[in-house]
């Protein structure tokens, strides 16, 4: 994995080296030999999270009309990376979180991701927090797959220090990851430094306790200073800490030129013409570092949906003179629009021609054919995936019934043995309770896990459970969000959930279920008095105690609920105010991991159901 280039490029700056040997340090931004007019091109992605296939029903607006296309997918990204091969001084960067998110990770443990990444041959890959989801040993397995290919991508994380003798440092601290890469371009050495997010990785992932995570800013500056002392004047940080953290970091650092980031899944650039909202700023974003000089910041959205290309030009002092670039959404050429019956259908030839013309005007969405080599690799894993989906991952010791609201008239588990009267009982949904428990175990911080009854789509019958079964129960692409709430706010959230279907004629899929929280519910009473005797279960000793209105608790839930779906408006307010952390743990994979760990899943103990007692809307106490 060694790609250090020291002797030849440094010999080009003899004056600088002479000063260093004499114990003198060059003044800031002293011109290195040959640096005048240096231009580099940086092609980058981040946070693909095992999303290797194209997004089949991605919706954009073309001419104001909703249009569905196949978008992204790793083979299209490979095509775009290869298309830049003729650009001068090209760097290919992945800013972390290759792991966790789809069955490709669950079933292949990084092998499929590494194979597709090796069709690009990245210069550097920066570790993200989710690289540690299966511990240091799981990360080593993925990195072994990555280094087994032809590329020998350098893995970066300057602020991550594994203990000698641990999986990531069996012999030396840099066996699997390095603090930086020195790369020569046009006779000039660039310093590329990796930084992983400290708190999130330690608290929400599963690194070994012996693996140290240093402060991001302190480590970045220390490493920059080390490289400056060796005559390096062009510094790129590859970070996995989020867009806002990148901007804040830039302002606190000296001598940083470029930050290529990940973690926050940030979309940069203007995509409103395509009906895509949520852009967080321009691409590139230009800010000032502590020296008052330009820093170019870039990030490329998420899930293999976007590709970014940045051009950076340096002046003859070695400082950034300008940066430019674009984020591209690679799409297929199969377009579908709505017909008179509001169903999407393949467009005719004339409509297709108009769509192509309009897309050419926008420029940000581009038709890209999948790279044949990458597509063949993906097909190899996809073919095995179909067989593996049928593999057993656990056993349901009894049927876990599907109920939205306790006492509802419709038995949603009809035909599932053991669920004949589930809809009439106070306990409500067994499968919701199991999924909530999976959420709570997946989060290392959460006191409470909260789910909505409509988030589960089928019951889980007694018997063997396959991957396909788990994805039938939880078919969406939701991820888990952690929020800090007071006990009083938790009560408001529960009231929101019940009021959505009782008072606002909203979906009864909003009805709440929880792990680590239980209550008495009286649906015959008005809002504000429906929930009583709310108790929380200690993670330390399993004891139940009263929920304290003024105390603060960590709640893990889906991004759908965190953003206010199904009437969860209190959660949305907290989320929009910045009071949440996205774990990017796929909710279905969380349940799969729970089944794999448990081996056998059954209904929880009666005392652990979230509904202790239930009185129906009609005033009848449910058994």
From TrEMBL:
Q: Which GO terms describe its biological process?
A: nucleotide catabolic process
The residues forming the signal peptide are 1-21
Which EC number(s) does UniProt give?
3.1.3.5
Pfam families for this protein? 5_nucleotid_C, Metallophos
Which controlled-vocabulary keywords does the entry list?
Hydrolase, Nucleotide-binding, Signal
Q: Which family does it belong to?
A: Belongs to the 5'-nucleotidase family.
User: The 5'-Nucleotidase C-terminal domain covers which part of the protein?
Assistant: 421-572
Which InterPro entries does the annotation name? 5'-Nucleotdase_C, 5'-Nucleotdase_C_sf, 5'-Nucleotdase_CS, 5_nucleotidase/apyrase, Calcineurin-like_PHP, Metallo-depent_PP-like
**Which lineage?**
Bacteria, Pseudomonadati, Pseudomonadota, Betaproteobacteria, Candidatus Accumulibacter
- Top-level division of the source organism's lineage: Bacteria
Q: Which GO molecular function annotation, any one, does this entry have?
A: 5'-nucleotidase activity
> Which residue numbers delimit the Calcineurin-like phosphoesterase domain?
41-266
| Species annotation | Accumulibacter regalis
Is the keyword Ribonucleoprotein assigned to this protein? no
Does the record's keyword annotation contain Glycoprotein?
no
What's the protein name?
5'-nucleotidase
């Amino acid at each position: 994995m060694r790609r250090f280039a020291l002797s030849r490029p440094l010999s080009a700056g003899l004056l600088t080296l002479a000063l260093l040997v004499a114990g003198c340090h060059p003044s800031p931004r002293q011109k290195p030999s040959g640096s005048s007019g240096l231009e580099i091109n940086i092609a980058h992605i981040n946070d693909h999270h095992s999303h290797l296939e194209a997004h089949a029903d991605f919706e954009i607006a073309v001419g104001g009309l909703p249009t569905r296309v196949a978008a992204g997918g790793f083979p299209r990204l490979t095509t775009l990376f290869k298309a830049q091969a003729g650009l001068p001084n090209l760097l290919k960067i992945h800013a972390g979180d290759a792991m966790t998110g789809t069955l490709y990770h669950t079933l292949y443990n990084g092998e499929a991701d590494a194979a597709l990444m090796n069709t690009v041959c990245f210069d550097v890959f920066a570790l993200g927090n989710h690289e540690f989801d299966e511990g240091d040993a799981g990360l080593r397995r993925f990195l072994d797959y990555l280094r087994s290919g032809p590329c020998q991508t350098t893995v970066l994380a300057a602020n991550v220090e594994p203990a000698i003798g641990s999986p990531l440092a069996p012999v030396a601290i840099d066996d699997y990851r390095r603090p930086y890469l020195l790369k020569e371009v046009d006779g000039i050495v660039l310093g590329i430094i990796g930084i992983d997010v400290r708190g999130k990785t330690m608290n929400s992932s599963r690194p070994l306790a012996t693996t140290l995570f240093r402060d991001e800013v302190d480590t970045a500056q220390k490493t920059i200073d080390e490289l400056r002392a060796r005559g390096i004047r062009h510094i790129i940080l590859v970070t996995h800490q989020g867009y806002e953290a990148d901007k804040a970091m830039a302002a606190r650092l000296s001598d940083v030129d470029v930050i290529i980031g990940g973690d926050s899944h940030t979309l940069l650039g203007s995509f409103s013409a395509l009906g895509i909202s949520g852009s967080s700023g321009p691409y590139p974003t230009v800010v000032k570092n502590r020296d008052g000089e330009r820093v170019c910041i870039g990030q490329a959205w998420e899930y293999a949906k976007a590709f970014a290309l940045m051009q950076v030009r340096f002046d003859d002092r070695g400082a950034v003179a300008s940066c430019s670039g674009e984020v591209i959404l690679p799409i297929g050429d199969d377009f579908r629009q709505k017909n008179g019956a509001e169903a999407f259908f393949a467009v005719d030839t004339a409509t297709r021609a108009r769509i192509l013309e309009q897309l050419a005007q926008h420029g940000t969405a581009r038709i890209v054919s999948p790279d044949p080599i990458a597509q063949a690799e993906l097909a190899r894993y996809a073919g095995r995936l179909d067989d593996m989906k049928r593999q057993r991952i656990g056993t349901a010791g009894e049927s876990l019934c599907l109920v939205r609201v306790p006492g509802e008239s419709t038995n949603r588990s009809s035909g599932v043995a053991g669920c004949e009267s589930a809809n009439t009982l106070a306990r409500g949904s067994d499968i919701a309770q199991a999924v909530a428990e999976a959420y709570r175990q997946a989060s290392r911080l959460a006191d409470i896990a909260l789910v909505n009854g409509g988030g589960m789509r089928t019951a889980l019958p007694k018997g063997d459970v396959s991957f396909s079964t788990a994805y039938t129960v939880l078919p969406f692409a939701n991820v888990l969000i952690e929020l800090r709430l007071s006990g009083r706010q938790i009560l408001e959230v529960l009231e929101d959930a019940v009021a959505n279907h009782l008072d606002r004629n909203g979906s009864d899929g909003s009805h709440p279920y929880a792990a680590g929280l239980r209550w008495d519910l009286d649906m015959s009473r008005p809002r504000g008095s429906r929930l009583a005797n709310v108790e929380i279960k200690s993670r330390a000793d399993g004891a139940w105690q009263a929920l304290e209105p003024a105390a603060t608790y960590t709640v893990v839930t889906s991004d759908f609920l965190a953003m206010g779906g199904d009437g969860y408006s209190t959660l949305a307010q907290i989320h929009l105010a910045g009071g949440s952390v996205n774990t990017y743990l796929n909710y279905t994979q969380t349940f799969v991991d729970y089944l794999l760990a448990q081996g056998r899943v059954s209904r929880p103990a009666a005392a652990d159901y979230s509904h202790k007692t239930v009185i129906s809307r009609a005033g009848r106490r449910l058994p």
